[in-house]
Give the backbone structure.
Amino acid sequence: MNARPPLRVAVTGASGQIGYALVFRIASGELLGAGQPLILHLVEIPAALPALRGVRMELEDCAFPELRDIVTTDDLGAGFRDVDLAFLVGAKPRGAGMERSDLLLQNTDIFKTQGRALNEHATSETRVLVVGNPANTNALVAQRHAPDLPARNFTAMTRLDHNRALAKVADKLQQPVSLLRRLCVWGNHSGTQYPDLSHALVDGRPLLESLDADWVEKEFIPAVAQRGAEIIKVRGASSAASAANAAIQHMRLWRENTPAGDWTSMAVPSDGSYGIPEGLVYSFPVTCSGGRYHIVPDLPISSYSRERMERTRRELEGEKSTALG
Ligand code: NDP
């Protein structure tokens, strides 16, 4: 039997709460599928290495058949050496009294270093998903410091926002999520994101025929955008399992295909579509096929949507100028 060579998957912040929810699912084969061996590269800061050793022991105790080896390290060279997929989850959280711009700058340093290390050590087609916040701008910073890697391979996660939008609409209509298609999230993974139902279908019919515009504007959009904060309030900690779930979905769809007639949301370097400046890491509706994503072209954009898309673009451009100067 011809065994497939293992793929190497890196996860930074691997002992954090999202990391802990993510690495077991990757190791179980949920990301790459049965029959695809993998080697996990778990990357942490020095202070978190003891906890990471515990994660490693638990992974070993799962005896996952496809998990061929585990690298645990605080060294980015070893962490990213020959990796095919990288989940950049670790990031500095906002501390007491810290301004958003301070957070941005501290994370800029982290993602500059990680971009350079990926450039030097990862495979030439490595695919990168940034989860650590501010995710879009962190992805942009990493991409700018990895000049030898394809820019389009640096992406950030908005699939969790997409899933939150799906769940909210399904609940409102009392319909299963499986009947919903073509929702999308535009822009930044932040409060300015624009979850858009204008193109969405329920059981093949335009979704907005069944929903009140007032509900969409006053309840749906704020509820999706503020869902993370709501979870922190209720759970006493930020979302982790749902973020890990969305991260796996993002990478899996990217490697495989989006279902026929549907799309997903991914923050990717803009190609200029919809007037979004080239290179800005902005969430678009995308389809995936042949291992590539494609921004859904030529959607009609209403003046209401345009205004929301511009608002989140302006925020991202502000973040970009703070981060890159
Ligand atoms: P989490 O695992 O909960 O979160 C990690 C990152 O994901 C944060 O930036 C968080 O943003 C972000 N995130 C993105 N989307 C979501 C979402 N929907 N819900 C929740 N979080 C989201 O953080 P922990 O503190 O538990 O773990 C972080 C790990 O990273 C630690 O183990 C730490 O050691 C490591 N770390 C690594 C650094 C590095 O690589 N240099 C630097 C700092 C920490 P937000 O903060 O906005 O919730």
Observations:
- Residues 12-13, 15-19, 44-45, 48, 89-93, 110, 131-133, 135, 160, 228, 238-240, 243 surround NDP (CB under 6 Å).
- The chain is about 40% helix and 20% strand.
